[in-house]
Amino acid sequence: MRPVFLVGFPGTGKTTIGRMAAARCGLQFLDTDFLLEEEYGISEAELIKRNGEEFFRKAEQKILQDVILMEDVLVATGGGLPCYSDNMDIILDNCSVCIYLKNAPEILANRIINSYKDRPLQHHEDIYQYVADLLSEREKFYSRSQETIETVTRQSADDVVEIISHLTENY
Question: Residue 166 CB: number of other CB atoms within 10 A?
Fold first, then answer.
C-alpha cells in the first residue's frame, strides 16, 4: 500500500492519532518532524535557528522524497510541509490517501502553548492571532487532501482513529 498521509496544523494531533491509527491499520508510523530531528540530531526549532527556514524546508522536502517511496506507512507531516514548494502535489501524487486533521485556531494555539515539545510557533508574542492568520494561509493547501476530519467535533482520539482506519481500507 502506498503511504497514508496526515496533514494539518501543529497541535491537531497528527502524531498522537497517527501512532494509534498506524497500529490499528497494521502500518508503520513515521513522523517527518521526528525523522528530521533524527537526521540532524537537533529539534526543529534549533534547526531553523541555526540554518534558517529555507534550509529547514529543503530538508523537509528531502525527507518527503524518501517517505513517498515507502510501502505500508502512515506519515504524519510537519504542519508546514504541505505548504511549501510543490510538496502537497508530491503527497497527493504518491499517497493512497491524504487526510487533513482540522481543528479550531484557538484550540490549536492552546495546545501549542501547553506542548511539551519545543515548537517554533511557541515563541510568537500574540500566538492566538498568529495561529489564526497562519492557519488561514495554510488552509488552501490542507484542504486539497482527499479527506478531512474535523477533530474539534470528535469525542475522542479513538473516534478519529476509527475513521482513519475505515478510510485506509477504502482507498
Answer: 10
In CATH, what number is assigned to the domain containing residue 104? 3.40.50.300
**pTM for this predicted structure:** 0.92
For residue 145, the SS3 value is: coil
Model pLDDT, residue 119: 57
The grid cell for 28 is: 508503520
Question: Mean pLDDT per segment of 10 residues, for the chain of length 171 residues?
Answer: 97 95 97 97 92 96 98 97 98 98 94 71 78 97 97 81 92 81
Q: Are 32 and 171 in contact (CB under 8 A)?
A: no
**Residue 48 belongs to domain spanning:** 4-162
170 within a domain of the structure (yes/no): no
In this structure, what C-alpha cell is assigned to residue 17? Answer: 492519532
Measure the CA–CA gap between 17 and 69, rounded to whole angstroms: 22
